[in-house]
Design brief:
By secondary structure, the chain is an alpha+beta fold. Helices cover 15% and strands 33% of the residues. The protein has one domain: glutathione-dependent formaldehyde- activating enzyme (gfa), CATH 3.90.1590. It contains three helices and eleven strands. Strands 6-7-8-9-4-3-10-11 form an eight-stranded mixed beta sheet. Strands 1-2-5 form a three-stranded antiparallel beta sheet, with no helix packed on it. A hairpin with a 5-residue loop joins strand 8 and strand 9. The chain binds zinc ion (ZN) (2 copies). The site of one zinc ion (ZN) has 9 residues, from loops. One zinc ion binds next to loops.
Length: 159
């Protein structure tokens, strides 16, 4: 059981933020964009309502870029240390929090793994997590939300 709110921030400490609930769901993305951007094997995406996230100090910078293949990407990061913390969701009222930027990551166990076709081959994914070869469809996201809710204490978030 996690204590709420939870806090997070960038590497250098310039940006600090707070999340007031455990979010809607948590999944790992193994797409090559996430691997390249994070410089790591995958990203941990905590889908949250924007209203549940507040900046406590600092001002995240935003970039909006066109990838070589024409796709658009944007996200918010610290302008000093470049830690990425927030990315837009398709739904304007939602935001994706880069969950590894939270101070306490011990409660973060993703319910699903997407883009597993580009996952690092040495990585063994847990059997009890949903796995998707490519992207997840909106209906799939609903099942992510159900699974995440099952794993969270329902009563503590309702305020
Ligand atoms: Zn920073
Ligand atoms: Zn990705």
């Amino acid at each position: 059981m996690i204590a709420l709110p939870q806090h997070g921030g960038c590497l250098c400490g310039e940006i600090r933020y707070r999340v007031s609930d455990a979010g809607l769901t948590l999944y790992a993305c193994h797409c090559t964009d996430c691997q390249r951007q994070s410089g790591s094997a995958f990203s941990l995406s905590l889908l949250m309502r924007r209203s549940s996230v507040s900046i406590e100090s600092g001002q995240p910078a935003e970039y909006s870029i066109t990838l070589p293949d024409g796709r658009r990407k944007s996200s918010q990061h610290c302008s000093l240390c470049c830690t990425r913390m927030f990315s837009p969701s398709r739904a304007p009222e939602l935001v994706i929090v880069e969950a590894a930027s939270l101070d306490d990551t011990s409660w973060l166990r993703p319910v699903a793994h997407i883009w597993t076709r580009s996952a690092q081959p040495w990585l063994q994914l847990p059997d009890d997590a949903l796995q998707f070869d490519q992207r997840a469809k909106p209906d799939d996201i609903l099942s992510f939300i159900d699974l995440w809710n099952e794993g969270q204490p329902r009563s503590s978030g309702g305020g």
